[in-house]
Write a structure and sequence with these properties.
It is found in: Cytoplasm. This is Cell division protein ZapA. With 185 residues, the protein is mainly α. 84% of the residues lie in helices and 8% in strands. It has a two-stranded antiparallel sheet. It is rod-shaped, with a radius of gyration of 61 Å.
Amino acid sequence: MQVKNKVLIKINGQEYPIVGAEPKEYLLKVGSFVDDRMEEVARANKRLSTSMIAVLTSINIADQYLKQKDEIELLQQQYTVPLNKLEKIKAELEITQKRLEETEYFGLQQDEQLNELRQFKENHEKETISLKNRLQEKENDLQKAEEIINDLQNKLFENQLKLVEARKQLEGYIETSEKGKYKNK
């Protein structure tokens, strides 16, 4: 339950008790406002009775209230369009931020893939260098083997020449010995 505040205010020379949930200072301010308006009406029209001053003051306050209410409604209408635009812009901003986040995420994925490709390329280059080195070693081994084969072929050829020469000498010796046998017989 709300606490009710009670104040005694003076309006047009008479005291009135006012009760409300608002603070006492606010209630005194309302009473002072009504008293000031009634004094303005009474000064402008000295022949009016208190009830007529109260009615005219009520009419003046109602007039001020309705004009201000209309003005507030007009201002609200004037601000509604920009506020609606602002809401649309906020919505577009949220969409743009989501797209930006998606783009950043996609960019991070692309960076990761690029790093993976770079790593693959580095590994491939290392493997290629390793294979080239092994190939060079095999080519060196092959060249050494060919040199050994050539040396062996040359030695074989030399040995075949020596063999042919030795056969000729043997055949010559055999012929000479056989001729010597026939002469001795």
